[in-house]
Specification:
The protein is of the alpha+beta class and 163 residues long. It is 42% helix and 14% strand. The longest helix has 18 residues.
């Protein structure tokens, strides 16, 4: 599926804040990947979740990673069973510096919508990974990047307090 074809699917689904090109752009090479047709549904679902986060946040958010083809995923050190390989994951970066607030908001939405979301990753710099249920997925889980899971737990505690 080309970026143009995915964009038509995103438009039909009502995705407002993100484009197919953003989701398919390989950050290191700047190439635009083609998405295997069988992953289109997951890509639309994960971008609908990303749209909810962006809408609630009310400020610009950038896609750090979306779909990653297998060779590219290996080259960037991605997990061998990464949801990015199936078009079911997106990494989001807030652009206005309110990192802790962005992470808390994403975590609160993850807690609220157990059917729509599967994975939540919280990383330094404010980055949030979200993925949706997909074939081969590991189900509902959360994690933190460096320095570890404590960051994700801290963000989840804060999200539960405001929920």
């Amino acid at each position: 599926m080309t970026a143009e074809q995915l964009q038509m699917a995103l438009d039909r689904a009502g995705v407002r804040y993100f484009t197919a090109v953003e989701f398919l752009r390989l950050r290191r090479t700047h190439e635009i990947a083609d998405l295997p047709d069988e992953y289109a549904d997951a890509a639309v679902r994960v971008l609908l979740v990303a749209d909810k986060v962006r809408e609630a946040y009310g400020a610009p958010v950038r896609i750090g990673n979306g779909y990653r083809p297998p060779g590219y995923n290996r080259a960037v050190g991605g997990a061998s069973n990464s949801a990015h390989l199936r078009g079911a994951a997106v990494d989001l970066d807030p652009l206005d510096g309110r990192r802790a607030e962005f992470q808390r908001l994403a975590a609160a939405l993850w807690l609220e919508d157990e059917d729509a979301t599967a994975g939540l990753g919280v990383y330094s710099g404010g980055r949030v990974h979200l993925d949706v249920p997909h074939k081969g997925g590991k189900g509902r889980r959360f994690w933190g990047g460096t320095p570890g899971k404590w960051r994700a737990r801290q963000v989840l505690r804060a999200a539960r307090r405001v929920a």
